[in-house]
Amino acid sequence: MSDYIDIIRKPETQNWFKAAMGMNITRDCLLDIVKEITHELYNTIRKEINRKHGVPEIDVCSQCYTPNVLTCDTDNKCCHYKNGRCAFHDIYKPRNCSANLCNEICKEIVCRHRFRNRSKPKSFQGPTWVNTDASKWCAEPWQIAKCYLSKDGYKDVNKEEEADFNGIVNIMYNCEFFQMYFKDDLTQKENVCIKVLLLQKV
Questions:
Q1: Which InterPro entries does this chain map to (predicted)?
Q2: How far apart are CA 134 and CA 104, in angstroms?
Q3: What is the spatial distance between Cα 142 and Cα 108, in angstroms, rounded to a whole number?
Q4: For labeling, which of 48, 81, 97, 175 is most exposed (least CB within 10 Å)?
Q5: 104 or 151: whose pLDDT is higher?
Q6: Terminus-to-terminus CA distance in the chain, angstroms?
Q7: Is 80 helix (H, G, I), strand (E, B) or coil?
Q8: Which value, in Å, is the radius of gyration of the alpha carbons in the chain?
Q9: Chain centre distance of CA 128
Q10: Average pLDDT in the 187-199 region?
Q11: Stretch (H or E) spanning 201
Q12: Does residue 41 surpass a pLDDT of 90?
């Protein structure tokens, strides 16, 4: 036990603890901001769909699941074929939303993803659909935000409060809607989000 006490007393251990505490405090502050902006994102998407297609902003849908709004394509990172069948689309088939809403929300999510361009490396192509549940898009804006998380480790993060620091920063960076809240140009190779994400790997 005395060995652990000695480790805790070491300056490098105390510095690590201070850094971890600082990261948690920063994450809590950013979380409040991300929650608020995610609601603004949803409202902006609904206004845009109303402008383009005349779908009233009060209309909602809870009948479309994520496979319903995605075409069967390996590029969406969800479809995996075995014996000529796609497990992702085995139960819910691609179809048009009866409210003319969910497919349009899907398109708007893609439009706002920083890496929607297919010329980018495979690991950076577009939204991470495996994280989200389209049936909750109209009720829980967090389900839209989850499309901007990385694909590993976030599928079961069903509340904003469950997201870690790395996840929060990924949403801010991957969703171009957040750019208006930054002085830093997030299109540059060196920007505040990239620097923070790289620090996490040190």
A1: DUF4559
A2: 11
A3: 15
A4: 81
A5: 104
A6: 29
A7: coil
A8: 20
A9: 7
A10: 86
A11: helix 192-201
A12: yes
pLDDT at 39 over 80: yes
| Tokens read off for 188 | 């540059």
The H or E element containing residue 106 is helix 102-111
| Structure-token pair, residue 131 | 């994280």
User: Which residue carries 């179809």 as its tokens?
Assistant: 95
**Nearby residues of 180 by Cβ (< 8 Å), 6 or more positions away:** none
For residues 106 and 99, the answer to whether their CB atoms sit within 8 Å is: no
Say what the alpha-carbon torsion angle 64, 106, 35, 201 is, to the nearest 10 degrees: 120
Question: What count of other Cβ atoms lies within 10 Å of the Cβ of residue 127?
Answer: 25
Residue 45: CB atoms within 10 Å: 22
Q: Which helix (H) or strand (E) holds 34?
A: helix 11-53
Strands 81-82, 85-86: pairing kind: antiparallel
Q: Hey, how many other C-beta atoms are within 10 angstroms of the C-beta on 125? A: 17
pLDDT in tens, 156-165: 899 999 999 9
Task: Give the predicted TM-score (pTM) of the model.
Answer: 0.86
Helix axes 165-174, 11-53, angle to 10 degrees: 40
**120 φψ region: left (φ > 0), alpha (ψ -120 to 50), beta (else):** beta
Q: Are 150 and 20 in contact (CB under 8 A)?
A: no
CB 88, CB 75: distance < 8 Å:
no
pLDDT of residue 148: 96
